Amino acid sequence: MATLLRAEQMEQNTGMPSEIEAPARTAWPLVLAFGFTLVFAGLLTSASVSVLGAVLAIAGCVGWFREVFPHEHEEVVPVVPEDITIATERHLVERLPVAPEQVRAWLPLETYPISAGVKGGLAGSVAMAALACLYGLLKTGSIWYPINLLAAIVYAPSEVPSASQFNSFHAGIFFLAVALHLVTSILVGLLYGATLPMFARHPILLGGLIAPVLWSGLLHSTMNILNPVLGSHIDWAWFMASQFAFGIVAGLVVVRQSRVRTRENMPFALRAGIEAPGIMPPRENGEKRP
Fold it and tell me: Distance between CA atoms of 53 and 32, rounded to whole angstroms?
């Protein structure tokens, strides 16, 4: 009762109607839809099902048509205004900080320096190498097995050493494996330093779990095509475990480094340190900054 009185007051104060006419509720659309369903279901089951569906579809069409002809069936619906209050539990509105020289925010606003990626790659390489050597000791009794296996990547399928040769030390192969391991680890560490700032939440989840799963699956699918003989020597469970060790350690080292502001939005002259009058802010004594 109070709601209707309030609606009448709203109508008197704002000119809004207290009730409106809306199309009357009807079940004929459901009957029509069910009839069409039976028509097509009968094509797979029995003709009698299609006949029943056709009867229901015709009845639905006629019944729905009579809802609007010769007179539209309508019902009166009272208008009940509702007070909507928008509130938030936050005391402050979060805003992206934008540098004075920026027109809009370039994300990420901060990134890691190159040194952070190098440090992360080197730390991850140590963790991965330790786990790989542990696998060699447990699997074959020799730490040289994973080292020789890594160097065998550059071999042709017909030149892959035998299992017994993987367990012995070879100076040339050792230095080749170390070089491959360090270069690859540093490159992946630099990739972590560039991509982890884009993931504000749970960066280690990306670097330590998701990324190793992606490239392990890629290597597993391509190794059987590029070098199936070498792929048969790889224990993929231990391979993924070593990738997880690398990703977690490298990610932790990278995210602990201090960030620097990104400079993509700045003019090339400022990024290159070139004297650019009119672009670079003047010094206190009136001279241009270098």
Answer: 9
DSSP state of 70: S
C-alpha 123: how far from chain center: 26
User: Is pLDDT above 50 for 288?
Assistant: no
pLDDT tens profile 188-225: 888 887 777 777 667 777 767 777 878 777 777 777 77
Count Cα neighbours of 147 within 13 Å in the Cβ-side half-sphere: 23
Q: How many residues does the chain have?
A: 290
Is the CA virtual torsion 192, 197, 199, 203 positive or negative? positive
Q: What residues are paired with 158 via a beta bridge?
A: none
- Cα gap 187→65, rounded to integer Å: 71
Report the DSSP pairing between strands 19-23 and 74-78: antiparallel
What single letter denotes the amino acid at residue 237?
Answer: A
Name the one residue in this structure whose structure tokens are 């299609």: 50
Query: CA 42 to CA 40: how far, in whole Å?
Result: 5
Question: Is the distance from CB of 121 to CB of 254 less than 8 angstroms?
Answer: no
- The amino acid occupying position 122 is L
pLDDT (tens digit per residue) in 249-258 = 888 888 888 8
Beta strands in the chain (DSSP E): 19-23, 74-78, 110-111, 260-261
The dihedral built from the CA positions of residue 180, 181, 186 and 192, taken in this order, carries a sign that is positive
Encoded tokens for 123:
């730390």
- Residue 159 CA to residue 152 CA, distance in Å, equals 9
Cα–chain center distance at 90? 27
Write out pLDDT tens, residues 135-156: 888 888 888 888 877 777 776 5
Angle at alpha carbon of residue 130, lines to 216 and 224, rounded to 5°: 25
Q: In angstroms, rounded to a whole number, what is the distance separating the alpha carbons of residues 233 and 150? A: 11
Q: Is 146 helix (H, G, I), strand (E, B) or coil?
A: helix
